[in-house]
Amino acid sequence: MPAAIFLKARFFPGLILINSAMVKTLILGAMPEGTRQEDCLAAGPWCFAGRDYLFPDWENFTFAPEPLRAPAQLESCAKYALRIYAEALPAIAATLCPDNTLPRTYWETLLSPWGVDVARQIAERWTRVLSMTRCWGRLSLRVPLLPQECAFIFATGHDFTLYGALGAVFNHWLLSRLLEAVWPESWQKEFLPPVRESYGESGENRSWGLKSRLKKCLGNLVLRLPCPPLKGVSLGQSLLFSLALLHKSRGEDRSAPPADAFSGAKTHAPDLPMPCLPVFLAALPESLRKLGHPRVLTVTRAPRLRIASILAYENEAYRQRLAVWRGCGNRLMYVQHGAGYGQALTHCLPAAVEYCQHAFGTWGWREYTGHRGNFVPLPYPQLARIADRHMEGGETLLFVGTEMPLFPYRLDACPTPLQVMDYRRAKKRFFAALRPDLRGRALYRPYFPIPGTLGDADWLLPQFPQVRLCAGSLARQMLSCRLLVLDHPGTTMLEALAADVPTVLYWSCPAWLCTPQSENMRGELAAAGIWYPTPEEAAGAAERVFDNPAWWRSAPVQTARRRYCAVYAMTVRGGENAYWLNTLVKL
């Protein structure tokens, strides 16, 4: 028998034993340095997150098949994740508050952003485990596992997203637990030493300077407003909108408790053969674990409405104030803050946090296929400030990308990990097809860095030295460029169309599954020559229109742009304040 070799893992202590000849090793977490592709199977591209520089041929490794390629499978998995959370919620609440007498609305409001995030990881990884065991279950494999005794300390729920959902070690541990529940007889377990990981810094351990303390105090004060400052909403508008919310909320409560909607949801995969509570408790952030809870909440006789800031996703202390508000019988309203809303075929987390509230303010759409909610169109100030503000005479072609996560952490209708690899390769195809003189006038804007993602500008720009990195304000660059190119549907696309920026779009439709209404609107953009299915066609279009500004001013293009904006990037003449006030006083 050939001698075994030892390879040291970077992201967990201990050594992994790999028999390089007879038995392949299934890698669940970070790929050990020096591993050869013929010696292993990779659970997913995330095995190379932050380590692809160690493996020049990493894209040629064998990856497990994608289990959620069909829209119906993705949708059922998202519903199953919400069911997992809804069924685990009472036990989580009892753990945090053993003498709990608080209403379920309190716990749903407090825990849903974090709890659904954890449930998404459980449901998605479960489908991957089943897919791997179906595909490779008869092979003789050695599988290094992290033991149950590992410990993870996340300072906040946001830290769990960054370092748990997008973290190699936590995902290795989670996959280990799920695999143990359906272990194939031909696989050999190899337990690694337990690890203890700590992520983020709690507020009590963080040193605050005077300026930071003042900023924090001011932030806490404005979050107490019935309408706190939202993205793109000025403080003056917040005060004005807050005054419009001082009345008793009109009509019956339109809130829809997530438990009612998702507790009976089914999945295309079998139910988990293991309890989920230990996973939730392992992922519980200190910011929730250490919260004190009121003993009792008095239900109000005159319920009122307040608008929740998107900071509720990341600020547990603020979210608890909202939870007390809801527990007392009052109502909440969220407002759209970016793209995906109303367009993505599956939108898992907002369904349990935002759409289930008394109202949800949209950027123009009234219906959302597959989702229920009280959807209220509002001309959003973020769009109103840049509406029709594009300045002609620019000289640059601006290309804006989006995030490239190798961990499937969202459970939304967005690219899978293997599709993310194709998405990045498409950038190279676009610039390779673009004529050299336009490359010399191109700026590339990468997504801001987050853990567990593919290299972006540092991968692309060395291959095209003529292309320069776009720095500074994206809004200023967008409003002054001659042509904007986008390879994904996103917030920048909606802002650009509202601002009347000449734009060329392309993306792979199977990677960005959209609702039928959104698909119809995309078809209108395609007919007008704005959207294209491949990077090569988009590059050809960019060459044709770059020196032809009349193209963007043509009737077909402007008609398609305005029709799209009316549904997904709504603006109104005369300012948005009167529209908001008229709407809020009726809620």
Topology:
Elements: E1 5-8, E2 15-18, E3 24-27, E4 40-42, H1 71-96, H2 104-136, E5 141-145, E6 151-154, H3 157-165, H4 168-180, E7 187-191, E8 196-199, H5 210-222, H6 235-243, H7 258-262, H8 277-282, H9 286-289, E9 305-307, H10 316-327, E10 331-335, H11 348-353, E11 359-362, E12 375-377, H12 381-384, E13 397-400, H13 417-433, H14 436-439, E14 442-445, H15 457-460, E15 468-469, H16 474-480, E16 483-486, H17 491-499, E17 503-506, H18 516-527, E18 531-532, H19 535-545, H20 550-553, H21 555-568, H22 577-584
Helix pairs in contact: 1-2, 2-3, 2-4, 2-10, 13-19, 18-21
The profile of the biggest β sheet is: 6 strands, parallel
Q: Percentage of helical residues? A: 25-40%
Mean pLDDT: 91
- Class derived from helix and strand content: alpha/beta
Walk across the major sheet and give the strand order.
15-14-13-16-17-18
Rg estimate, integer Å: 25 Å
